Amino acid sequence: MFEVKYSFSDNISSDITKAGDTDLRYNLFLGSLILKTQKKSIIIDWDWIPLIDFAICLLAICNNLLTKMKGEEEFEFTESDSKIFFQKNGDRIKIVTSFSDEVLEMGFEEFQKGVKMFYKSLLLEIVGKAQEIKNNSSFIEYLKEADKS
C-alpha cells in the first residue's frame, strides 16, 4: 500500500475566495509530507511544502508514466534544490530522492491509487477547513480534476 500523508503548517490568513492559481498552488496550504509504503517511509518534514502544487504535480507525474513501460519523471521543489525521482520499469515504480537514503518500491497500480487518494483527500480536507474555497474558480478546477481521477 502506497500512501502520501500530509500535515498543514499554516493558518489561512487571506481571502481564499479571491486567491489566484499561483497563491493557491504555492503560497497557501503549506505543510509537510510522508511518502509511505508498508515497510518504508520518506519523511519530508519541512513545513513549507506547497501541498496543492505537490498534489497537482504528483497526479501529472502519475498520468505521464501511466502509458509508458519504462520512464522517469522528476519533481523539483522550487524552494530548494531537493528532488524526487519516479522511475517506472514495467509494472513497478521506484521513488528515490536527492535528500533521503530511503527508496520506495511498489507496483504502479498501487502507486496510482495512492496518488489519486492523496489528491482527493487533500482537496476535501481543504474544503473542510475553509468552506468558502468552494467559491474560488481555480480551486473548482482542481475539484473537477479530482472527480475525473
How would you summarize the topology of this molecule?
Layout: E1 3-8, H1 21-27, E2 30-36, E3 41-50, H2 51-66, E4 70-76, E5 83-89, E6 92-97, E7 104-107, H3 108-129, H4 137-148
Antiparallel strand pairs: 1-2, 2-3, 4-5, 5-6, 6-7
Helix pairs in contact: 2-3, 3-4
Strand content: 25-35%
How many distinct folded domains?
1
Q: What global shape is seen?
A: globular
Count of β-strands: 7
Q: Main β-sheet: number of strands, strand sense, barrel status?
A: 4 strands, antiparallel
Number of helices: 4
Quick summary:
38% of the residues lie in helices and 32% in strands. It is α+β, with helices and mostly antiparallel strands and 149 residues long.
Describe the structure.
This protein has 149 residues and is an alpha+beta fold. It has a single domain, classed as Roll (Transcriptional Co-activator pc4, Chain A), CATH 2.30.31. The protein is 38% helix and 32% strand. The protein is built from four helices and seven strands, in the order βαββαββββαα. The strands form two sheets. Strands 4-5-6-7 form a four-stranded antiparallel β-sheet. A hairpin with a 6-residue loop joins strand 6 and strand 7. The longest helix is centred in the C-terminal third of the chain and has 22 residues, at 108-129. The radius of gyration is 15 Å and the shape is globular. It starts with a strand and ends with a helix. The mean pLDDT is 92.
